[in-house]
Amino acid sequence: MASAIYFCDIKGRPLLSRKYRDDIPLTAIDKFASLLADLEEESSVIPPCLTYNNTQYLFIQHSDIYLVAITNLLRTNIAEVFAFLYKIIDVLGDYLKTVEEESIRDNYVIIYELLDELMDYGIPQITETKMLKQYITQKSFKLVKAAKKKQNAARPPSALTDSVSWRSEGIKYKKNEAFLDIVESINMLMTQKGQILRSEILGVVKIKSRLSGMPDLKLGINDKGIFSKQLTEDDTNNNATSKKQNKIELEDLKFHQCVRLSKFETEKIITFIPPDGDFELMNYRLSTSIKPLIWCDMNVQVHSNSRIEIHCRAKAQIKKKSTATNVEILIPVPEDADTPNFKYSHGSIKWVPEKSAILWKIRSFPGGKEYSMAAELCLPSTSSKSEEVQNKKPVQVKFQIPYFTTSGIQVRYLKINEPKLQYKSYPWVRYITQSGDDYTIRLI
Amino acid sequence: MPPLDKRIKKFLKNSIRIAPKISDKGELAELRTGLVSQYPQTRKDAIKKTIQQMTVGKDVSTLFPDVLKNMATNDIEQKKLVYLYVMNYAETHPELCILAVNTFVTDAQDPNPLIRCMAIRTMSMIRVEKILEYIEIPLRRTLQDDNPYVRKTAVICVAKLFQLNKELCIELGVLEDLKSSLDDENPMVVANATASLAEINDMDPSIVDLKSLIQLHVKQFLAVLNECTEWARITILGALSEYSARDGLEAQDIIDRVTAHLQHVNPAVVLATIKVVIKNLPQTDFNPNSLIMKKLSSALVSLMSSPPEMQYVALKNIRIILEKYPEILSKELRIFYIKFNDPLYVKLEKIDILIRLVDKGNLKQCSLLLTELKEYSMEFEPEFVSRAIQGLSQLGIKFSGEKFLQKVLDILIELIDRDQNSIKDDCCIAMCNILRHLPENTDMASQICSILNAWESPDEYLRTDVAKCNYVWLLGQYPENFPSLKAKVNIFLELFNQEESLTQTSILITVVRLHSKLPGSTLQSVLEKATKETTELDVRDMAIMYWRCLSMDDSEELVEELCKIIPPHLETTIDQFSPDLLEKLLLELGTISSIYFKPQANRRTRDVSYENVVKGKEINELQDLAKNELASKANEEVLLDFGDDDEEDEDELDGDNLTSVRTNKKYSALDDLDDLFNFGTTTGKPKSFKDDIGISQGINELNLRPSVDSNSRSQSNTQELLDLF
Prior knowledge:
- The structure holds 2 protein chains of 2 kinds.
- By secondary structure, chain A is α+β, with helices and mostly antiparallel strands.
- Chain A has 3 domains: 4-133, Beta-Lactamase (2-Layer Sandwich); 177-229 and 256-290 and 407-442, Mu homology domain, subdomain B (Immunoglobulin-like); 294-379 and 392-402, Immunoglobulin-like.
- Helix content of chain A is 21%, strand content 40%.
- Chain A has helices at residues 30-42, 78-96, 101-106, 108-118, 129-135, 143-148, 225-233, 239-251, 261-267, 387-390; strands at residues 4-8, 14-19, 49-52, 55-62, 65-71, 119-120, 123-124, 177-191, 196-210, 216-221, 254-255, 270-272, 277-286, 294-303, 307-316, 323-332, 338-344, 348-352, 357-366, 370-378, 395-402, 411-417, 426-442.
- Chain A has a 9-stranded mixed β-sheet. Chain A has a 5-stranded antiparallel β-sheet with strand order 2-1-5-4-3. Chain A has a 4-stranded antiparallel β-sheet with strand order 14-15-20-17, with no helix packed on it.
- In chain A, strand 8 (177-191) and strand 9 form a beta hairpin.
- In chain A, 38% of the residues are buried.
- By secondary structure, chain B is mainly α.
- Chain B has helices spanning 4-15, 28-35, 40-55, 64-69, 76-92, 101-107, 113-123, 129-134, 136-143, 148-164, 166-172, 174-181, 187-203, 210-224, 230-240, 248-258, 267-280, 291-303, 308-324, 344-357, 363-377, 382-399, 402-417, 424-437, 442-454, 458-461, 465-477, 485-494, 501-513, 520-533, 537-551, 555-564, 579-587, 592-596, 619-636, 643-682, 690-693, 695-704, 711-724.
- The N and C termini of chain B lie far apart (93 Å).
- Classes of the chains: A alpha+beta, B mainly alpha.
- Chains A and B meet through strand 2, strand 4, helix 2, helix 4 and strand 7 of A and helix 3, helix 5, helix 7, helix 10 and helix 13 of B.
- Chain A: Belongs to the adaptor complexes medium subunit family.
């Protein structure tokens, strides 16, 4: 129920806008930049909704732009507005590759067209890119062509408003394949001593479908087995507690809108007609306790006013036959440290002054191995007192482990059935575990 | 694949442009030539450039007739561009659009549904009455269109028309069509019709009976729910949450039918589902252990892995839900631990939830949270640290064991020892709150006082009014623990006029309480400052009253009574909603009002701006008018403003605002009076603590403590006060 959508630059000045209703003054957006500036001056708490003169500004930030929805109705569904703003970014991302000030300015025509289709009178309408692309095409239509094949001129595909609004008919592939990626991101917060404060697994099942016609898919995973299997492998001690959690964990599944939710609810079967191309079928979350996959034993000694010594022993606590790749360990150092000096056995280390950190990269880290490094940086002889407080950032670790899932989830089968065409199809499955955006070790 | 030579030819044709190019300067004259060029490509380019100029805010309305010439084309993109242009000026120059009316009507019958939609969508946005009159036939036709895509657009046009011209909309009878669209076979049409009706109901609740319409269609809603787009689901779930089930069975049925959507990937769908479940829950027989609670709990948890803005909405709503169902997330404490890359506004909300969530009977959990909060309080973002320190004392008081509170105190002392001035405010308030919770604990009191006594110049360490007020209160409460009491009081007394009202009040009360321990001149000086120099009305009135009490002959006993009074025992520092407010908020989950915790008491009907519609002129006249406007503008090449509409708009707004401000002022003045009056009759209770315990509670207490001390005098006091006004 937004009255208008604005794209604003980093200062909050409007770049492009679309008004859906005339219940707010045209000048309302001009206030946004100054509201933002005032807030920034006052404090660093900037909530995503601002009010001025009964006008509500709801906004999200993406690269160097703000996406602002304006409304004056308090009963506006704010969750819907935010979800929609994120959807706009998604859709534009599909059309323009990158969504930033530059690309917004360059593509105003296509954006206007899209905004027209995505929302009507402030009510979100059609946001499925795959369908939009069929009648909002970025390249302009050639005049001659359009005149000749008048009937074929862009029309909304009939499937748009059907119950399968994400797939149109008549898709054809020579070879019918479906690629299934299971990606698990691990978020973990540890103390320097190795105590785990929080851990969670965020899993995503991604599908790239290259299938003809209207295929009906059925996905079987080791549904009941997932969590009990984990138990036998890792720790049998807190069997009882984990079992209790099982049910809750399972319910934390989230499905793409193509999955028949009611069918899953009653029969626990995942069935769907997939959109064409890439999409996320489902995601899940598990908060069972897990061992750190990459553990860093940190030892930091600060000799104030002279130097700081950092020792780090990293260990890949995964199966011998697995290998962690692209491991990156980001260790914070004081802002005013300089002249770094490193010793290390593997990988490469560099000092990243703009992040006030040192970055240790290890391309390949086989399971069970242990690598170590030592770094020494000089500190200025005169230092301010507050410096100690500033340096509270945790150590961040990034990694990827192919062919491995932490939760033990496995695809039992992916049945593809196209009732009319009855073709042969090939499902491919790939597993990967990686660090989430919050895999950190807190320094004392 | 066409043969290679053809492809090359095509490539050449496309890349080599014979048509003249339009430069980027965007001069009106150049654009105009471009728009009427004989080359189609140039014309199209010119339209694009025109729209670009429009985007950057330049007034290109003089080109209107030239752009309009390009409307009749088979090139859809070009048509879209022209429509875009027209729609934009529909807002600011409605008169000009009259020139396009014929094209609209033709396009509304185009074989291509996309064009039919564009025509009807644009037409219903133009605020010219004469155009609106032309809308009848196209709108009726599109409402019955074969293509659902057209129908779903048409149903929304009804709401647009209603906003522009209510009478016409009713007269045309399209509302009936709209209502029957609720029975449409296509889920998206149903959803848009629902949304459209909700809008109309919002503008004028007397026209359609939305409640009973929803009532009639609950079955359809539940049926289409599984088949429509995510946004349509949100609309339909929204309608369902307005519906009150007839009995427990139906409520249970609705819950069963919607719960599958708790697993939808779109967080807004999840939240809308939660709203429906919560609405129906009280009517069913559920217990805290039932499956539905677990499902709700895991749905709420899943919202915490959404983008930060969404998390913010979720956290605010969790805050509301928790008050109704405190057990709902009890096992999920860790989910709300702060991630170091959370935005600050999320961090602050998370601390709030953490403290509400923690089970006060569970020592282990509380201790865990305590270490976590300690960690937060050593971070570097000041707002976050401040909230964490506040959280420490809230947690301590919630758990309420002396040992535990001692731990909290140890952390606070450790924090103060880190010698950072910015946190002293918060630590001081936190410690005072702990003491107010455990007034009997003298060890703790002496420990705290000795720390605070060591501050040589507290007025420099403390910045906020509340913190200073707390500090001064402490001086009065435990004078024997402050060896340098006199010096401290004098510091504050000197700065009396610079302080804000809470601190002034607190100084006044403290000095009166300590008048036997302090030199007489101090009392004299505070009373003088408070009666003559201050600009705070409350403070002055209080001072006058004290003065009178003190100057009475047998004042000793009375003053004794006054000084004995201590603020009420602090049970909790976590604020709660009133039951009434809570129920209202639960019905508005997911809305903007739920973020501000301010439900809309009475849904204000929006002012429909009919005035904007250009009325009462014949179509010819209008056309002439438009042409004249254009001509005059073209001649002068001045960017004329069609200022009338805008100004009217603003005037109206201003008027509205003014009245509301006025009423607000009136109210606040009344409130002030009330406050003063209450104060006058009770005298004992330091106002300064009101903010801690919630104003309503504070006032109750004020009323509950009828002034024992000055019963005999109160009448005269009251009289004095009344005289003052």
